[in-house]
Specification:
The radius of gyration is 20 Å and the shape is globular. By secondary structure, it is mostly beta strands.
Amino acid sequence: MADGAANGSSSAQDSHPSWEMTHKVFDEELRAAGAAIRTVACSGDAVLTGSSRPVVKVWRMAEGKLAEAGRLKRGAVGSSCVEASADGNTVAVCADDGSIVLWDLRDPEHHVGELEASVPTAWKAAFLPGGRHLVSGGTSGALCFWDLRMNRLESEIAADGAGASSSDFLRTKKGEEVDVKRRRKDLGRPSRDGNHSEADKSSPIYSLAASRDGRLLGCGRASGGISVLRLETREWVGDVQAHLADSSAPVRALSFDHGSRLLLSGGDDSHVCMVDAAGWARQSSAASRGRPQLERFPAHKGWVTSVSACPDPLRPVVVTTSSDAGVKLWDYRTRSLICSYQDHTDCVFASAFAPVDGRFFVTAGADAMLGLYVAKHD
């Protein structure tokens, strides 16, 4: 199904909602330097892009086109992640030096805060529902929870469930030794689902996604595993090996469906996986909690670099992008391909739907192109 016709089957197009490419725009500065757009996020009618340059660009959508409308400048390094809060105003930027800078799009000339993070814990970030907290993760495999009202670290949760205070975290940043043995003393014991080792659970975090209902957080790991955390108690539900390869298949992309039930992932094995995360979390205890319901299907010829589920409950679709330069639209209920787009000329790194209604989505990649796809009217 993943290698179907360029525009999907006619029956699929007739029975599913679809989006069509309406505009493409190049970041000419990046294009001239041979640099990529690494990351993209949507906030209302604004689209934000990050790259290896020390600036996040703000693009505005008007009359079906995108035009650069502003820049968020801070520091001297690029960004690995750009995220927008649900209120459409607050933006978090994970910089390559490990800092997390906060901006308000209503006053883009000045940043409104900076979180004292580090590279091992701030490669990726996600706003939690309500917009008052942010979670970040990176090469350490741990999660950091940030209080955005105070702009400070609230807690750190290790992959084995051990917690650390903000003072522990600051000591780590200063190079002082923390009790790593306490967190890793059970390296050889079975994992929470009994299927892979503790070392897998502590592997680097490549992707994060929070469910819309605020109950669950998904973590995609370098090992190909997916970890699910219960946000209310900040306790791990479990881990499952979702993506497989001869060596490893990092989970580069995660997205919850609108109903906060399914967690969709994309990895270097060219597949998309769907985990019934909500059903898994509802199981009464760790002792009775088995493997979650998991389905896999081939999606691309290269790495799956992003997975974005449409926020409109009437449109059960997901966009995937890949290192094969493809963009695909899927019905995740039936795992059927709706449409395949070939507008990029190089690896597509990122995608994002318009919040709330999903009336458009954008893609960005190594060709420094930003693509705009608008939903067709029924």
